[in-house]
Structures are given as structure tokens and as C-alpha cells.
Write a structure and sequence with these properties.
This protein has 5 helices and 12 strands. It is α+β, with helices and mostly antiparallel strands.
Length: about 300
């Protein structure tokens, strides 16, 4: 029974014809439907109005959403481009600022060097009787003051010990040691320095003694052995004296202040404000002539 039923079903399936649909048939069918819709829409516009309304009610909101999303994406892309442009401009501005900063520093350095050279020139003109050579300071003490420092000129440049050194408006100190290409200078503010001075107005002599602590604290050093009868006043000029064995005569040392009679009542003491800024030195002038009396002592 079951076998006969299966054989009947098999025969029915075999009797069915296979229907095949070709793509061109589908194309022509869709083309026909499209032409028909266009014709009906053109010939009977009111007939398809409900269809249009339905389609528009579905498409327009979707189109608005697409436009909103599109504008949002476009705005973000524009913002991204703007940020990239701003970053590029920022980098360019940074590079410009760095270049201008370096240029400004260079101009400031050149201006400072020009001022230093101008001061040296004026100092050279002020003391025309002495031959001089300029030198640059290349090292100093770690205390921040130029009480002892090194210059970039040495014996190859004709520098000798006990040559006088000047800067700013007057005396700096003495060359105390010389090497081939450099030399060491001890300034008048150093504790071990003593200079035979003279009041320019009265020719009264005195001793100017270095005192670094006083210089750091008050900006001045000590003056002693002033004649009790010396007619001197505040801010009188003190220069190197004619009796100094190492210092050339007439070089400005500084200006006297705080004049007092000492405890022995036999001499006066005072303080001296140096004519040179010993906290800011860069270049100096070395007088390339030794004091005559010192040269004679060397020959003997």
C-alpha cells in the first residue's frame, strides 16, 4: 500500500514541468510596468496622487534625516579641516616666534657688545698716553663677583705681570699671573689688594684696600691713611697716585664717601665707591706698559 502511494507521488513529480524565467523577461516586465506608470501618471495625474502622497510621506522624512546627518558629517569634516589648518598655523607661528626670539637675543647681545666696545673706546680716549690692548673675560670666581678673573690674552699677546687693567670708567686691577694664551687679574675689590691712591682735587694720598664682603654688602671698599688736614668732601675723586710702584698715575679708582676721623685722631678713614661695576664685566683694557719704577726694580 505504501509502496503504491510512493510510486504515484513520484510519477506526479515527474509529470510537473520546470518553469525557467530569463533575466531579459524580468527586464522587459519591469520596463513595461515603468512605462505604464509613467503613462498613467502623465495621462491621469490625479489617479496616482494618493500614491505620490504615500511615497512622499515616507521619503521626505527620510530625506530630511539624511540631510541632517549629511550636514553634521560635513560640519565635522569642515571642523576637522579647520583644526588641522589651525594646528599648522600654530606650528608656523611657533617657528616664527622662536626665530624672532633668537633674532632678538642676537640683537641684544650685539647691542651689549657694542656698548662694551663703546665704553672701552671712551676709556681709551680718556687715557691717550698709555698703549692698551682689549681682552675678553673667560672665567671668574664662583661668588659672582670679578675680584679674581681670567682673560683671553697672554704672553703671546705681550701681556706681563703687574700690567694695569681698566674697564668702565676706571681702574680694575693688576695682572698677577700670565700663561701663553691667558692671564689672571686680581681686582681692587679683592681682600688682598691695596692701591696707593690720591685725591684728584687736593693731591692728598691714601690707601685703597680691597674688601669683598663690604663690596657685596654696601657696594664700596675701604680707604685709609688720609691726612687729618686733607680738605676733602663727599664724592671727591680718588685716582692712582704718583708714588704707586705698580699702578700708572692718574687712573680713576672711584669716589669717596663716609669720611671720618679714625680712632687715633691722627688720620681720616673713608669708603670708596668704585668707578667700575665689578658685578658686570665682560671686556677689559690692559695697559701694555709697566710702571717705570717697577721696570727699574726688575732690571736691578
Amino acid at each position: 500500500m505504501q509502496k503504491s502511494r510512493r510510486s504515484r507521488n513520484r510519477r506526479r513529480r515527474n509529470n510537473k514541468k520546470t518553469i525557467s524565467v530569463l533575466p531579459k523577461h524580468v527586464f522587459f516586465l519591469l520596463l513595461f510596468i515603468t512605462v505604464a506608470i509613467v503613462f498613467v501618471s502623465y495621462r491621469f495625474p490625479n489617479l496616482l496622487q494618493p500614491v505620490r502622497n504615500g511615497i512622499e510621506s515616507f521619503i521626505i522624512p527620510m530625506q530630511k534625516g539624511i540631510n541632517v546627518v549629511g550636514r553634521s558629517v560635513s560640519d565635522r569634516l569642515d571642523n576637522f579641516d579647520t583644526i588641522k589648518n589651525l594646528q599648522k598655523e600654530n606650528e608656523e607661528l611657533k617657528a616664527t616666534v622662536e626665530a624672532l626670539t633668537m633674532q632678538n637675543q642676537q640683537i641684544s647681545q650685539e647691542k651689549y657688545e657694542l656698548n662694551s666696545l663703546q665704553e672701552l673706546y671712551e676709556l681709551d680716549v680718556k687715557y691717550p698716553d698709555y698703549k692698551k690692548v682689549a681682552a675678553r673675560i673667560i672665567a671668574r670666581e664662583s661668588n659672582g663677583w670679578y675680584n679674581v678673573f681670567t682673560i683671553d690674552k697672554g704672553s703671546k699677546d705681550g701681556i706681563k705681570e703687574n700690567m694695569n687693567v681698566m674697564a668702565g670708567n676706571g681702574l680694575v686691577g693688576l695682572v698677577v699671573s700670565v700663561r701663553n694664551n691667558s692671564a689672571t687679574v686680581r681686582s681692587i675689590i679683592d681682600d688682598s689688594s691695596k692701591v696707593s691712591g690720591m685725591f684728584l682735587k687736593t693731591s692728598d694720598t691714601c690707601i685703597v684696600s680691597g674688601d669683598l664682603n663690604s663690596m657685596i654688602t654696601d657696594g664700596r671698599i675701604k680707604v685709609s691713611m688720609i691726612s687729618l688736614d686733607a680738605d676733602i668732601n663727599e664724592n671727591d675723586e680718588i685716582v692712582t697716585s704718583h708714588i704707586s710702584d705698580k699702578f700708572q698715575q692718574g687712573i680713576l679708582i672711584g669716589y669717596v664717601t663716609d669720611i671720618k676721623i679714625d680712632s687715633s685722631n691722627m688720620t681720616k678713614t673713608a669708603y670708596l665707591t668704585p668707578a667700575v661695576d665689578f658685578e658686570h664685566l665682560d671686556t677689559v683694557l690692559i695697559i701694555t706698559e709697566l710702571k717705570e719704577s717697577f721696570e727699574l726694580e726688575d732690571e736691578e
